[in-house]
Please model this.
Amino acid sequence: MSVDVARPSPAARSDAVPARRRPPKAFDRPRFLRLFTGLFFVFLFAPIVLVVLFSFNSSRSLQNFDGFSLRWYERFFESESLRSSLLASIEIALVTMVVATALGTLLAYGLVRARTRWSGALNVVMLVPLVTPEIVAGASALLLFTQVGFQLSLTTIILGHITFSISYVTVVVRARLATISREVEDAALDLGATRVQTFRLVTLPELWPAILAAGLLVFALSFDDFVMSFFTTGESPQPLPVRIWSAIRFGVTPTINAIGSFMLAISLVTIGLALLLPRLLGRRESGMGVLLGREGA
Amino acid sequence: MSAITFEGVTKRFGEATAVRELSLDIRQGEFFSLLGPSGCGKTTTLRMVAGFEQPSEGRILLEGEPVETVPPYERNVNTVFQSYALFEHLDVERNVAFGLQRRKVPKDEIQRRVAEALELVQLRERGKARPRELSGGQKQRVALARALVNRPAVLLLDEPLGALDLKLRKQMQLELKSIQREVGITFLYVTHDQEEALAMSDRIAVMEDGVVKQCGSPEDIYEHPAGPFVAGFIGVSNLLGGVAENGGVRLASGVLCSADVPGDCAQGSEVHLSVRPEKIWIDDLEPGMSSVEGTIVERVYVGTTTQVIVELAPGERLVALEQNTSRARADDRWEIGERVRVGWHPEHSLVLR
Amino acid sequence: MTEQRFAAGFLFPGGLWLLAFFLVPLGILLAISFGYTDDLGNALYGWHPENYERVFDPVFVPVLLRSIGFALATVALCVLIGYPVAYYIAVFGGRRKSALIALVVLPFFVNYLVRTYAWIAILGDDGLVNGTFDTQIRFLNTPWAVIGGLTYGYLAFMILPIYAALDRMDPALIEAGKDLYGRPWLTFRHVTFPHTFQGVLAGAVLVFLPAVGDFVSAQLLGGPDEYMVGNLIQQQFFAAENWPFGAALTTIMMLFLLVWMVLYLRSAAREAQEVTA
Model:
């Protein structure tokens, strides 16, 4: 049985006045939470630190670090088939990024500005891929391509990736678009810009931090993707995650550490760009704020 | 030729009617205000002139030409929005130049006209600033310059001063008025602030529920309101209930006040007698004034004036306004509870139904 | 051209793509689920509803139930671990809030396989733990290994919505609650938790739905006794080459998840209405 807490008076609202930093009393027990969170971060990063660390191990051992060496990275880059997998992963991620960002941005604009009968249904259709287990999307994509007679290849992987990426772009861009008032677009029309010009000269420039952040997010997700790639890949080249899966099935080898660490580095650079570029290129807000805006679901 | 003509314009949104059978003529070069409370249809009317809404019935003519098929970007009108609606990704100069660039005006002319426009609103030195670096008042001026630089036939202003503090608002009112005189463009101004409308306009249309209740000059509307709504909306107005009786109004208390009863008011019909607070005298009455007795129940000091509230009968109160001159401060003269006689010249009273 | 028609045009490219590459394939999936395979292993259309009967064969039912069980356990663990972390960062994070949340999200950009495989390296029979402490503890090939792997994999999806909900909450409410209730647990129960409930719900959905269909954790960290419906489906498509049956399994799983999806969307819509009312 919960009691309704009386709402504090408007004067007490923190959005007008910066929140006072109360000294934590025993009451708040931050010590326990701080410890818990600290432990959490340890367990969260331990495996990753290990993978990176042991990628530089000079021996095969997973238990002892026997000295620094780049041999596993050499193995990775010397292998022609692994190199072509790396290039395949990058190519897939780039194409997916460009196409999904374009489609997702257009869709976001349509969903926010147009109120048609289809808007509600389309909104749901757009959200479903976000919560659908990838195995469902993967299996159905595989069926589509084989039933239609389309040979499995990089192209089919790209088509599959674009399909699940559109929703991410739409959600991020839509959140941003909602903050752009209609009056600004009305002003552009009023001053002589056609609707197309308004979109190009006023809406898009206001949107681009979100578009950029979404695009880089798509790149990272596509680069790391496994399940969809697994279902839609052809014989060769196969993207890196699929190669890792095959490798793991045959037993753990340290080369996987090198591949995994390298992929982590690429993802870090991508996400770093997503967070920093908007700020570097002269906008106040960071990519983090833009991306997190979407979590108000 | 009028700048704008409304011919029986009606606008419906689903079941609701925002504007009803609006017919108006707005003259070239005049400062015309649409005044009324929220929801009276004034903003909708403005948006129809701009082209963001289409009339459900009737038509609008701009400089004599009908504009149903003309989209907003082809109309020779520009709007100053309540939220300024500046382009955040462009600096002030580029904001102002936007409209001219759409029209493919040559570059050097754009530069010249932008400089002129910024000079007009006294923001010449902030040309390279970004909107987020400006104060509210400055943003408003950029919005004004951005609209005026295109030399539209009509400038539409949608409660542009609403977000400014009182002092700045008063200052901007005077500036807008003088800019309008200087530039000579027709201004169509929307506001809910009747003082603002009275201060700035050549003519005002008072609207309620989508209908124009009265259209005229500020003096007309203030001194001769057509109906209780206008009388109540513009300034404070005392409304005393009574019955029309040869050449006057017999008030509920029995007193007969002489007043100009309009011809269509039959003998014995129920009417209101309306008197403006500043026209009411307390004691020291002049001969010929109508008067009633009452008790002072409240004194409200507002700096330049004092409002004295006199109760004539339970539930019937009159507000009188006295200036606090050095010679006569109301505070010194009246006590709460004092019994007084209040009066006014009959020509300052109005009979309303 | 009116704004409506202009903006509506924007819906076509993305909408058509989703129609062609997401909805149509789901339709094909449904159709094939009633099909059969010929001697060559090709999947053909037909009318074989027995595929669905087979889904509920006693051999497979434990797998289905296990998937739900593991996913629920994952959700529970994610809440138990994720809520305190989100709370700490949102309430006590101060200026470093954004950095801390970024740190939480960061590991999820390491490939899921690599992250899971790292746990093999740590917990395996020849792994780091057993090696360092010279023990022979069997961590892997157990249900908890799989649940742990799932939790590790989806934790961020629980933390982010809860963090967002806590961040949006007015701290003055917690202050008021403390004045009213005195004890921290009561404040939490009556003030904080109800306000962040939608966030927890969102997180639960974002974890539960993908977890049910996951097969990577079960494959890498568990054995045949820990296989989930995802592994079953994967087998049908790759090893057993029985696509119609695989499609039937997928459809059943999808239908089960749709129920929760709809319930969640309704609850979110209702809450949005209450907030604006």
